[in-house]
Write a structure and sequence with these properties.
Strand order of the largest sheet: 1-2-3-7-6
Distance between the termini: 37 Å
Shape: globular
Largest sheet: 5 strands, antiparallel
Oligomer: single chain
Order of helices and strands: EHHHHHHHHEEHEEHEEH
Number of strands: 7
Strand content: 5-15%
């Protein structure tokens, strides 16, 4: 028997919109103030995801700041240093530039030339300065979210549904979505940078080092029951702003994203086409789950949630089923019993 869990894939903002749409302002007000049992309140709805992405970027900045050409290679150290500085400068420029505006910035890449090198600083110092820029932007984002949430509450108290809807859209579409997408695009650009210069094995090591830097979070998930972890996974995935549906059967939970709100929307937005396309991992192996190729951003999922957790805990956390499809969709499973995970899936996580 299959059971649906529609609430697991519904964002708080969408539940609030539905309450406004049926003119149930008391329910809308309760959602805005007290949350839906997943997000604690409207003001905090996107804080967990933005902070989580910030932790990931912090780890990435530390790794990028320490990148050096492997011994015995022909990689030009000066060129690597220059290109890394440009990557970080472009990211700072994207954070310091105009933030408001509807829609996604996933397909455009990071704009160049908005934040120059400060001069005379080592690459690790440049990475640390970039991190401080991100932290300042996060503080501003959280303050803006609190203001927008209060505006929604004030409008609901005044029975002004049009103003409540306006501020709800502004909070999500104008403020959160572009900020989220800048962080995701920087992750994708970082992964592409490493793949282009260090190859598949270099990217796999980079991914595993990034996972190690976030291991505390994975260890918390490891302690959850399958149902708790499936619900946590659905909550995190829906904060990427895709569409998430969750079902349960006797063996497992299944999470279907149509599209995935990070890697899937990158594909839909054209990030792998155009003047500055992201690369694909084109050698079958753990980064592609044995497939002929995998979008570079999506390669972190089998590495972090498969290869790394298999090494740490003896099991993959997410079991992917035809991931990173061209239409942006992706399906994953959370098994209730680790012994039920198909052996062939774990085999696809092993080095070629």
């Amino acid at each position: 028997m299959t059971t649906e869990h529609p609430d697991w894939g519904r964002r708080l903002s969408d539940a609030l919109r539905a309450a406004i749409g049926r003119n149930d302002l008391a329910a809308a007000l309760a959602l805005a103030r007290d949350g839906d049992g997943q997000a604690r309140s409207l003001a905090s709805e996107f804080l967990l995801m933005s902070r989580g992405l910030g932790i990931t970027v912090r780890v990435l900045l530390g790794q990028l700041g320490a990148l050096t050409p492997p011994s015995g290679t022909v990689l030009d150290g000066e060129a690597l240093d220059r290109d890394l500085r440009r990557l970080l400068a472009d990211f700072r420029g994207s954070l310091e530039g105009p933030q408001e505006g509807p829609g996604s910035v996933l397909g455009d890449g990071l704009p160049g030339g908005q934040a120059g090198d400060r001069g005379g600083e080592s690459l690790p110092q440049v990475a640390e300065f970039t991190l401080r820029t991100l932290q300042a932007r996060q503080q501003r984002f959280e303050a803006e979210q609190a203001v927008a949430a209060q505006q929604v509450i004030d409008a609901l108290l005044a029975h002004d549904t049009a103003r409540a809807s306006h501020w709800l859209d502004r909070k999500e579409i104008h403020d959160y979505l572009p900020y989220h997408d800048r962080l995701v695009r920087f992750m994708a650009d970082s992964f592409g940078f490493v793949l282009d210069r260090f190859g598949d094995q270099g990217l796999l090591h980079f991914h595993l080092d990034t996972a190690e830097g976030q291991r505390a979070g994975f260890e918390k998930w490891e302690k959850q029951s399958a149902a708790e972890f499936a619900r946590t996974s659905a909550f995190l995935l829906k904060q990427h702003m895709g569409q998430v549906a969750v079902t349960e059967d006797d063996e497992k939970f299944t999470i279907v994203q149509t599209p995935c709100g990070s890697g899937g929307r990158l594909q839909i937005a054209g990030a792998y086409r155009g003047a500055r396309p992201l690369p694909f991992v084109s050698t079958p192996g753990p980064l592609t789950l044995g497939a002929p190729r995998m979008p570079v951003y999506c390669s972190h999922c089998p590495a972090w949630n498969g290869v790394a957790t298999l090494r740490w805990f003896g099991r993959a956390h997410w079991i992917f089923d035809h991931p990173a499809r061209p239409d942006g969709s992706c399906t994953l499973h959370v098994y209730k019993r680790p012994e039920d995970v198909p052996a062939e899936f774990n085999a696809r996580l092993a080095p070629a």
